[in-house]
Amino acid sequence: MAQVWKCSGLRWSADGGPVLEWSGGRRSALPRGKRIAFAVPEGGVRRCVGARGHACAVGAVVPGRSTGARCEECARLDRAHSVAADTIADDPRPYRVYLAWFGPGMVKVGITAVERGPARLLEQGAVCFSWLGTGPLMAARRTEELLRAALRVPDRIAYAEKRLVRAALPATREERAAEVRELHARAVALAGWPESLRPEPCEVADHTGVFGIGEGPGACGEVVELVPGAGVGGELVAAAGPDLHLAVGGRGVVVLDTRLMTGWELVPPGQADAGCGFPVREFRREPDGLF
Question: Which residues, other chains included, contact 81 with Cβ-Cβ below 8 Å and sequence gap of 6+?
């Protein structure tokens, strides 16, 4: 019987490298050029991954297209204890407000604990970012709200939108940093900043080299879901956030969101599993003109 693995998700290590984590504690580093290959066995079922380190009480079956891999109850429990839910207002740790850029016209505001450094930005696939301010959690939250209300800066951008623009990013660091610099200047000039939040200078970090994007052909599509009896095999050419960009024989570069892997039992691919047997949604390119 083939050895079975259960993926716990992709994490970004302190030195900026992507790592796949597996149930039982095993970790797989993902250097560019590594071959990634696995399959879902025939008859496989995707089950809820539970919440906050606890298994799902009923072992619920979850949809293949769910990026959370949690049933409704476990998803509620997981979010109830997150910073995003605003249920831990007494958190004593210092927080940073940041501006993250994913592509032309795609800038968001967010917060992260100071102790995490840039990990949150790597996890989100931010191409560029700059810190905006540092202070207590609730001051950071109020600043985030200020930017949303005064400058209409979103706090979320869908991963599907991020993927579409990665293949056509501006060529230079200066071009990629321009929107962050402009928004940073507008943000620090706003009235109403919390007194306990210390403004940070605009110092734009660029992750294109860390991710490996822009160094080869762009992605032509994305895996929609994993399905039993199919597999994927390809060379890792880039990684951004939870996404692996795999050069798959016969069809170019395909993006695999590693969040789709959680909840499945995975096995080594058979000889017939070369390429990508999972359903793929092709990226639609906007035409250059009217015709």
Answer: 52, 87, 88
Angle formed by the axes of helices 137-151 and 173-188, nearest 10°: 100
254-291 residues labelled b (16+ CB within 10 A) or e (exposed):
bbbbbbbbbbbbbbebeeebbbbbbebeebeeeeeeee
Angstrom CA distances, 131 to 15, 118, 291, stand at 19, 10, 43
Pairing of strands 219-223, 231-240: unpaired
The rounded distance, in Å, linking the Cα atoms of 100 and 214 is 18
Q: Where are the alpha helices (DSSP H) in the chain?
A: 72-80, 119-124, 137-151, 159-166, 173-188, 208-211
The label of the residue with tokens 């050419």 reads 237
**Contact assessment for residue 172 and residue 196, using Cβ atoms and an 8 Å cutoff:** no
Strand partners, 237: none
* pTM assigned to the model: 0.89
Read off φ and ψ for residue 140, nearest 5 degrees. -65, -40
Residue located via tokens 């949604």: 281
Select from 47, 37, 39, 4 the least CA-distant residue to 22: 4
b/e per residue 106-128 (b: at least 16 CB within 10 A): bbbbbbbbeeeebbbbbbbbbbb
Summarize pLDDT for 200-227 with one digit per residue, the tens.
999 999 999 999 997 777 888 999 999 9
Distance CA 197, CA 142 (A): 10
Q: Strands 252-257, 219-223: parallel, antiparallel or unpaired by DSSP?
A: parallel
Q: How far, in whole angstroms, is CA 79 from its chain's centroid?
A: 17
For residues 222-235, give the mean pLDDT.
94
Task: Assess contact for 69 and 48: CB atoms under 8 A.
Answer: yes
